[in-house]
């Protein structure tokens, strides 16, 4: 009974937040379909400040299979407080969901050309089918950020560059030692598009690369990433890849491929496949392949 109530609450909350975002988008203009609309880049797309809008996808994977669950997380910091004494018997299959939104707080700053946004993303990994461990949340990642966006308009390799900017990003799992993980980044980004294609490029300086929680995290999860999105007839195929930019040793990073298939209105079937390091913060130095199936309500575009 407790399990059923918990799952029902998560699904209800998931639907409420996604619904709020969809309704917020309908206040002043149609749901965004390109970078100009999504980030209000020109005067034709400007709505208002403090309007809740989508940022990253909102989805729930009702079943996500891992080839190698991280039963005994460890940090590259080998001091005693970061050593896990014994492993935990996690299931190969768990539930994963993500909530994400942003809002513009200042418009027309810095020579009346930039917008300031704040955003929040939460990614949760729930061992909901693990009765022996009383169905715990294995990991929750909290990711607030501040984003300064500048509209631009020039072509590169046939793509229209629509925006560039800089962001401060904080990522943590809210746990104490030995499971505490933290990443602070200053990120430079650009957004490009062409017909049905959208590209996000980012590179960053990791302020937490030498922290006690997870030293050398960028050597595993990357220092730059690419998000490539293709949309057509309600389908969305997205590839996300990060790379550690280390050319003197074994390349490492993370790759994720997702596909959403329209079911009805905003409801879509959702498939996600990933391989590499850092699907979550606790897994930053853990190599695994995952396959998940569920539903999505908000996509990148």
How is this structure best described in words?
With 301 residues, the protein is mainly beta. 11% of the residues lie in helices and 50% in strands. It has 3 helices and 13 strands; from the N terminus they run ααββββββββαβββββ. The chain has a 12-stranded antiparallel barrel with strand order 2-3-4-5-6-7-8-9-10-11-12-13. Strand 9 and strand 10 (235-243) form a beta hairpin. The longest helix is centred in the first third of the chain and has 24 residues, at 2-25. Residues 20-30 have low confidence and may be disordered.
Number of strands: 13
CATH classification, class level? Mainly Beta
Strand and helix order = HHEEEEEEEEHEEEEE
Q: Spans with pLDDT under 50 lasting ≥5 residues?
A: 20-30
Question: What's the Cα radius of gyration?
Answer: 19 Å
Helix/strand-derived category reads: mainly beta
Query: In this structure, how is the largest beta sheet organized?
Result: 12 strands, antiparallel, barrel
* Known CATH architecture: Beta Barrel
Number of helices, where a helix is a run of at least 4 consecutive DSSP H or I residues: 3
Strand neighbour order, sheet with most strands:
2-3-4-5-6-7-8-9-10-11-12-13
Percent helix, as a range, is 10-25%
User: Could you state the CATH homologous superfamily?
Assistant: Phospholipase A1
* Integer count of domains: 1
Q: At the third CATH level, what is the topology name? A: Outer membrane phospholipase (ompla), Chain C
């Amino acid at each position: 009974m407790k399990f059923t109530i918990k799952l029902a609450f998560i699904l209800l909350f998931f639907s409420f937040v996604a619904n709020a975002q969809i309704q917020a988008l309908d206040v002043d203009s149609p749901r965004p379909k390109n970078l100009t609309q999504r980030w209000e880049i020109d005067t034709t797309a400007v709505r208002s400040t403090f309007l809740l809008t989508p940022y990253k996808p909102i989805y729930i994977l009702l079943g996500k299979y891992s080839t190698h669950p991280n039963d005994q997380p460890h940090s590259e910091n080998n001091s005693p407080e970061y050593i896990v004494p014994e492993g935990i018997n996690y299931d190969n299959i768990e539930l994963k969901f993500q909530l994400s939104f942003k809002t513009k707080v200042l418009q027309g700053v810095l020579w009346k050309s930039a917008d300031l946004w704040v955003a929040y993303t939460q990614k949760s990994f729930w061992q909901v089918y693990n009765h022996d461990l009383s169905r715990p949340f294995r990991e929750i990642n909290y990711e607030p950020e501040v984003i300064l966006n500048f509209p631009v308009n020039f072509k590169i390799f046939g793509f229209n560059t629509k925006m560039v900017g800089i962001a401060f990003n904080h990522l943590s799992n809210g746990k104490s030692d030995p499971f505490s993980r933290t990443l602070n980044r200053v990120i430079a980004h650009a957004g490009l598009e062409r017909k049905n294609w959208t590209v996000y490029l980012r590179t960053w300086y990791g302020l937490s690369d030498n922290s006690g929680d997870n030293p050398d995290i960028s050597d595993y999860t990357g220092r730059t990433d690419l998000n490539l999105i293709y949309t057509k007839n309600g389908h969305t195929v997205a590839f996300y890849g990060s790379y550690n930019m280390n050319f003197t040793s074994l390349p490492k990073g993370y790759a994720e491929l997702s596909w959403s298939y329209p079911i009805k209105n905003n409801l879509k079937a959702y498939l996600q496949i990933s391989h590499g390091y850092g699907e979550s913060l606790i897994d930053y130095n853990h190599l695994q392949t995952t396959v998940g199936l569920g539903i999505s309500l908000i996509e990148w575009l």
